[in-house]
Amino acid sequence: MIPLKDDIPSRSYPIVNVTLIIINVIVFFFELSLGEKLEPFIRTYGVIPIKYFYSGIRLEDGSVILFSLEEKIIPLFTSMFLHGGWLHLISNMLYLWIFGDNVEDRMGHFRYILFYILCGLAAAGTHIITNSESDIPTIGASGAIAGILGGYMLLYPYARVIVVIPIFFFWDIIKLPALIVLGFWFITQIFQGTLALAVETSATGGVAWWAHIGGFVFGMIAIHVFKKKSRKPTYRDIWWE
Fold this sequence. Notes:
CATH architecture: Up-down Bundle
Shape: globular
């Protein structure tokens, strides 16, 4: 199912959420301008799990490449703003646009950006642990956004989300509670992540399912710390039609 919109208006302008979307788009266009330099750029600023378990690697010619502390830390942050294609970018920004503004609204701007970054770090850490032998660079805002989804699901479980559901050659547009939409999304990630481990796709690349899972779970836990404490629930927090 593809979400299109939720029914909860933001009480303040989501400046941080909008800024994150703009930054991701600008960085993507920068990637497009790199041409042949894109691959080494991604390998430098994407997260490569094997770097975090070895001090270096020996090449076929006998030379050794050592991994510095900077090469391990910087990609944890920069990888959150890189994307592998138009579909990757658009799908991530769609989810961030729909669900991020309300989470920012409940946290405040500073707490939201900190929450976002920590979710991204948790996602990267989960991916590194579950793909320790992979030398494939991982990029994307998906892990951080998964944390936003986890937080949103607990804050607004009964918010109505308009989704498109493809049924064979037809498309149906319906409203569902966020608990079902995001819960279904999370279950899908677990299923795909478990399957990925079973067939060892880490060697050939693909979707970082466990990064999504790690970010989502972290978001569900951290939302209790980052949300503002006092606010009376509205009917949108309680009921859905």
